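Practice record 12: protein with zinc ion.
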Amino acid sequence: MFRQGSRWYSILRLKCPRCQQGEFLESHPYTFSDLNRVKNHCPQCGLKYQLEPSFYYGSMYVSYAVGVALAVGIFVLTQLLAPGMSLLAVFGCIVGGLVLLMPWIGAVSKSIWAHIFMAYDPKVARMVQDKRAKNKA
Ligand SMILES: [Zn+2]
């Protein structure tokens, strides 16, 4: 859907904003022991993810926007799939969906926040690809 080089490619795959190949988080978003902990550096290109102390606090604003967008999406889905559903049931679906998606929303919000300040660099991406190809051979 989104090709390498586009911001959405690395945001949705939770990859490094610069090389789009290194992992962004310490573990999967649903691993509750390190809930959405961002790595210090990209393991592939070495980009520093923590630009300053408490850098990812700003991702809370992004998380609010992502949550509202998902709530609207769930509302539209309920209206399309079950048009006669009561307002209380629709509200329950929205709350349930947001609770289930909470770890993913937090991870994607941090990724979006990082992508606001860090850009994709095709030269670095190429260098990392070459390095990985050499290591495989
Ligand atoms: Zn990287």
